[in-house]
Amino acid sequence: MRLIESTQWINYKNHNTLFVKGYDVLVDTQSLSPIMPLSHGLGHKQITVHDVHVDHDMVFARASYSDYECKNTHWVSAKKLLNHANDQVVHHVLRGVHYLGWDARHQFCSQCGARLEKQKDLFEKKCVQCERLFYPNLAPAIAVAIRRGDSIVLARGPYFPKGQYSVLAGFVDPGESAEAAVHREVKEEVGLEVTNIQYVGTQSWPFPGSFMIAFTADYAGGEICVDGVEIEDAQWFELSDLPDLPVRGSLSRRLIEGL
Length: 259
Ligand SMILES: [Zn+2]
Prior knowledge:
Layout: E1 2-4, E2 16-21, E3 24-28, E4 35-37, H1 38-42, E5 47-55, E6 58-65, E7 73-77, H2 78-81, H3 87-105, E8 116-118, E9 125-127, E10 133-134, E11 139-148, E12 151-156, E13 168-171, H4 178-190, E14 193-205, E15 210-221, E16 233-238, H5 251-257
Parallel strand pairs: 2-6, 11-15
Antiparallel strand pairs: 1-5, 2-3, 2-4, 3-7, 5-6, 8-9, 9-10, 11-12, 11-13, 12-16, 14-15
Bound molecules: zinc ion.
């Protein structure tokens, strides 16, 4: 990952670029693709490009925008875009949003307060005073599909889109294994016991900076009991009659559809 000086941006004008503003990405209105030449965004007076990073054959551009309408491009939520993007686009969106988000939130050293400086061709940043290195954050978290016959437990938090349910998920605590986190989160969130925990896969998830580790587990006992705060509802759902699920492109969705 290399930060490019603004005087050099013209050299990258034809490079495939992803324009990112927070958790939004710019898409071409006609093709609905978020990948477009750098010149496409630079040429719009309503889009301000703040910095540009080259990542192998891709460019990630941090941008902001006015409310002024543009007929050629528009901004969409990166999560929504994952619903219909192919695997390659999903990869670029997850990587670009993750890196630019971390970069924006990590401008100063948490040890001495001095400015952080980007390192040539590297992800990490270095403190200009105490020289401590900082790497993009990935907070490990588990996601688990709990099975009992042809049913699974799905839950929803108060911040979920209306009607949407997902597998249980939670961050791994310091000193804890992912498997232990599965047992703890399941017990804390829905009051159940599980057994036969099986690894399924992983995904970096930049909303806001998780590293998801997915498992399946078999129901081993207990009745569903939610706290009404972190989890507002959890139910057993038949695999043939599932509610609205998380976006395609997410590991949670893959976990459910793989059952
Ligand atoms: Zn420092």
